[in-house]
Amino acid sequence: MSDENQNHEEPVIRDPSTSSGQADGKPSRRIDPETGEVRQPEVPEPVEGTGGDSAASAPAGSANGGEDDDVLTVDDILNAAQAEVQEPSDEHLADLKRVTAEYANYRKRTEANREVERERAIGAAVAVLLPVLDDLDRAEKHGDLEGDAPFATIAAKLRASVEKLGLSPFGEVGEPFDPQRHEAIFQQPSDEVETDTVADVVETGYTLGGSLLRAAKVVVKTPQQ
Prior knowledge:
Helix content: 25-40%
CATH class of the domain at 168-225: Mainly Beta
CATH topology of the domain at 168-225: Nucleotide Exchange Factor Grpe, Chain A, domain 2
Radius of gyration: 56 Å
Strand order of the largest sheet: 1-4-5
Largest sheet: 3 strands, antiparallel
Shape: rod-shaped
Structural class: alpha+beta
Order of helices and strands: HHHHHEEEEEE
């Protein structure tokens, strides 16, 4: 037993502060031998530009930690648009002139087409009344529209109504023959005329606006050979 007690080694407690310690020379003991309190590990201060918390402390909206000079804001865009409106470029002025000219041409074409369609619709309606107007002309030649007879009053109202729609009659005895407006149904050689002349109107011609609705059917006097 004495030999065992002599060979038994007592536990050895080493003080880290007395050893080599840390690389910076500071003691590595966690318990302060003077106060008996546990030391808190020292956190090194972050170095700017070496990562760590420096990226987190960068201003919001900047992915490169402050390099937000090239990022466009809403105010920048609005200011640029306002400046462009106040001082438009030559390219924008050319585009504006082109669009204005195209719109003016579009309006002209639309108005012209509208007028053509209007005359076409009126012409289709008036064409139905042409036989009635022809009957009135024949009645007038026979003297049935003289005086203030009711039939004469109705004829006058009907003629006035179609004239308001733009219908104009033509074809008079003695006027020069025009093959573009007159349809010759008979020719009479005569030494009284030097050019082809309308001798009689069989059927009155009509124009609607600037368009020929129906040619006048006439008898023509031609110069005698």
